[in-house]
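Deliverable D5.2: sample structural annotation.
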Amino acid sequence: MSKPVVPEDARRRRRPTKTGAVLSEQLIVDTALRMLREHGSAGLSVRRLGAALGADPSTLYRYFSGIDDLTLAVGNVLVGRAVAGWEATGDWRGDLRELGLRIHAAYLGHPQAAVLTASRVSGKSHEVAADETILGLLRTAGFPDRDAVRIYHAFIDQSLAFAALDAASLALPAAARAADEEVWQATYARLPAETHPHIAATAHLLVARMNSSAYPTALEMLLDSASAQLGGAGRGGGGG
């Protein structure tokens, strides 16, 4: 059963843990990220977190209501890292491209955490701030609200979906990931034109591209579509 979370000021630990650290939300989230990186999602538990922090596991409930609440906080931190230091330039398309690539890179920096959090909606501070920023870029660029929300929806879901997809590959054991990557060279590149003419014709291109992320290409296609729509709206067109 989850327990009520105590406000930050009231829950601050007055003395260091066995490891010499003073507990805080940030320390717990950073430790959770490290445990996910080293042991995967199966290695993340209140008991193991307590041991890693040198604290009684029950103490963690003063900061988070449970592992799911901690998971949402981890996702929020990843978004915060993505937008840290970012500044708008006034070029809505370039700004959205930069934000998308930053979000994707931040999640891939912690693939085990990305697999757990990319599909979640936390409503926490960094997530809300990022959403406000993206919507602001689109509305300021001149997109009507209905179109701004539609493009925002596609943009953020595309960014997180590719983050989850690419992170899932990175989270595989090294041998499994290498085997998957080898399939394009070992199987697809050797299919005969008599039975698979289109694969055979493009095999060299498939081998060159398919083991890298398609996210930059997909992002550019989305931005192309949004730019064309904005131009059409300026000529009396517009989306529904």
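Annotation notes: The longest helix spans residues 145-170. The radius of gyration is 22 Å.
The annotation will be released with the project's public dataset once the embargo ends.
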